[in-house]
Design brief:
heterodimer; A: 269 residues; mainly alpha; MetI-like fold; B: 339 residues; alpha+beta; Rossmann fold; OB fold (Dihydrolipoamide Acetyltransferase, E2P); 2 domains; 6-stranded mixed beta sheet; 5-stranded antiparallel beta sheet; 8 helices; 19 strands; 25% helix; globular
């Protein structure tokens, strides 16, 4: 009985893994073979990098990469700044209406960002940030999830450390910077991983708010590149897709262990 | 000595909603002294220390340190250092960074920081451990890092909140001596919170015994031992604590009073010659002597010390004797009567 259930466990896990990785494997296969070979799944057909060359020349990828990179960096910096301050206030400061405000922040967790797309669009245009990278990133900076995460991390810091720092002459921001932030490093790492992968892959909002190749991130660039009016060539689209996910994929493979540990340590599963 | 006391608490009170904090705390602490705040848990000794540190603000009263009114000053402006029960070392910083943390915050120049660090580590015997993280140190070493951090800035007042309670018994004894020596050598004023009366009695110049948020007695250790002002002090101080006997049990003291007597002043005498006869209910071999616990209907905590190994069987009836000059007389309210 025990052996059967453990067999079912591994069988299920392997099955899920195969289902999950199949599209990725196929994309890899298609990207490295000519279109007809790719579709026929001819295992002995010759490998080629031609698709990558064609795809690379078909769109300003370098610009897209740079845009995405700048975008996730700006978002991450903004999120670290706001979630640190807000999380600290909710964890360690006492002010009137704290509970109420915190519930408001938590309620934000229940609202899908897509619901607010029109409202955000209006706000971003009003701020004159339409078609800018800052405009793409701004709605995500005061992340409710991040605030909640930081609050939990800061709450776990022993109060004696706070008091010791006070006696040693630290001001409130000094304590935050010298005690709380370094102690919450694992949480920051976990949050950074989630944030970067989410915003690297984010599509709908950047699609709406960007209008030119100068601001477009990879995802939007890729969708335009692969749009039917440009003619569908599965191999070339696969090659472009592989290119755009490569940095994240390589990053994940390199930091796999840290990635998983970061989540375990930060207490989110 | 006409000099004003270094630390002065005047009628300080702190109340938590509904809960008892401390009430009417008045205390003068001279510079360079070692004062122990002693009492059972929940007696307000830690609260008193935290009020002094500025981690809590009093609801009433005044606190002066070095002739300055610091009642509402921030902790960082009081020029004191503190050793926490949990040591409160920053786990992400090395020993060196932990010790110079306060100096860095206060922007002490690097050269001076280095000198002070070296001196503090030398005094606490931590040279060579500069780059370790607190997690890589033993309990005793962590404790010394906390001490080093407390003395590095050269503050004249150092507060210690049960700094030894996380150490094992053997280490506790040696660290006790180290702390005492440190205090003497540096000439700093130490206010030390503990629930362990041996610790307080052996280290302090002045012991402040507290109960339920109030000071019971302030005095030198021998005063508390020899002249307890009430039955609480009598029972709290000393090992074994003072035995308390209802005055009805002994002739010539009337009714409603309590008589206290210490174990070392009680002798076992032949049957019929004693002032009290009681039953042996336990024998405890302590090494150089044996502690015999006695039961008597009108008394609590009676015991007698016999030299060497001298166990007595349980249930044995014996008579005991003591002289009137060794008796402490307390009135019905438990207060000491002047004799």
């Amino acid at each position: 009985m025990k052996r059967l259930s453990s067999f079912l466990d591994s069988f299920g896990a392997i099955l899920l893994a195969i289902i999950w990785i199949a599209p990725l494997l196929f994309a890899f296969w298609a990207a490295t073979h000519s279109t007809s070979d790719a579709v026929n799944l001819n295992l002995f057909s010759p490998w080629t990098l031609e698709n990558f060359r064609v795809a690379w020349n078909g769109a300003p990828w370098l610009k897209y990469f740079l845009n995405t990179f700048v975008l996730v960096t700006i978002i991450l910096i903004g999120q670290f700044f706001f979630t640190t301050l807000a999380g600290f206030a909710f964890a360690q400061l006492n002010f009137r209406g704290k509970e109420f405000v915190f519930i408001l922040v938590l309620m934000q967790l229940f609202i899908l960002p897509e619901v607010l797309i029109v409202e955000n669009y209006v706000m971003i245009s009003r701020l004159g940030l339409f078609d800018t990278i800052l405009g793409v990133g701004m709605p995500y900076m005061a992340s409710a999830f991040g605030i909640f995460l930081m609050r939990q991390a800061f709450k776990g810091v022993p109060i004696e450390l706070h008091e010791a720092a006070r006696i040693e002459g630290c001001g409130l921001l000094g304590i935050l910077w010298r005690v709380y932030v370094p102690l919450a490093k694992p949480t920051y790492l976990a949050y950074a991983l989630v944030s970067v992968s989410t915003h690297w892959n984010n599509f709908l909002w950047p699609l709406i708010v960007t209008n030119s190749p100068d601001t477009r991130p990879l995802t939007v660039g890729l969708s335009i590149f692969g749009a039917p009016e440009n003619g569908v060539d599965i191999s070339i689209i696969s090659a472009a897709t592989m290119m755009s996910i490569a940095p994240l994929l390589i990053g994940f493979l390199l930091f796999q262990r840290q990635f998983v540990q970061a989540f375990l340590r930060a207490g989110i599963k | 000595m006409t000099q004003a006391p270094f630390v002065r608490l005047m009628d300080v009170a702190k109340r938590w909603n509904g809960q008892l904090g401390v009430e009417g705390i008045s205390l003068d602490i001279p510079e360079g002294s070692f004062t122990a705040l002693l009492g059972p848990s929940g007696c307000g000794k830690s609260t008193t220390l935290r009020l002094l540190a500025g981690l809590e603000l009093p609801d009433e009263g005044k606190i002066m340190i070095d002739d300055k009114d610091v009642t509402t000053s921030a902790a960082s402006d009081r020029n004191l250092s503190m050793v926490f029960q949990s040591y409160a070392l920053f786990p992400h910083l090395s020993v060196e960074e932990n010790v110079v943390f306060g100096l860095k915050v206060r922007r002490v120049p690097k050269q001076e920081r280095k000198q002070k660090l070296h001196r503090a580590l030398e005094i606490t015997g931590l040279l060579g451990y500069e780059n370790r993280k607190p997690g890589e140190l033993s309990g005793g070493q962590r404790q010394r890092v906390a001490l080093a951090r407390a003395i590095v800035a050269g503050q004249r007042l150092c507060l210690m909140d049960e700094p030894l309670s996380n150490l094992d018994a053997k280490l506790r004894n040696s660290v006790r001596k180290d702390i005492k020596k440190l205090q003497r050598d540096l000439g700093i004023t130490v206010v030390y919170v503990t629930h362990d009366q041996t610790e307080a009695m052996s280290m302090a110049d002045t012991v402040v015994l507290m109960k339920d948020g109030r000071i019971q007695q302030v005095g030198a250790p021998e005063d508390l031992y020899n002249k307890p002002v009430n039955t609480f002090v009598a029972e709290f101080v000393g090992a074994p604590p003072m035995a308390l006997i209802g005055s009805e049990a002994i002739d010539g003291f009337g009714k409603g009073k309590t008589l206290g007597v210490r174990a070392e002043n009680i002798q076992i005498v032949p049957k019929g010659e004693g002032r009290l006869s009681c039953t042996v209910n336990e024998s405890e071999f302590l090494g150089s002597e044996t502690l015999i616990g006695l039961a008597h209907a009108g008394a609590a905590g009676l015991c007698v010390l016999r030299p060497g190994l001298a166990m007595m069987s349980e249930g044995e009836e014996i008579d005991i004797h003591f002289n009137n000059e060794h008796l402490h007389v307390f009135d019905a309210a438990g207060q000491r009567q002047v004799s």
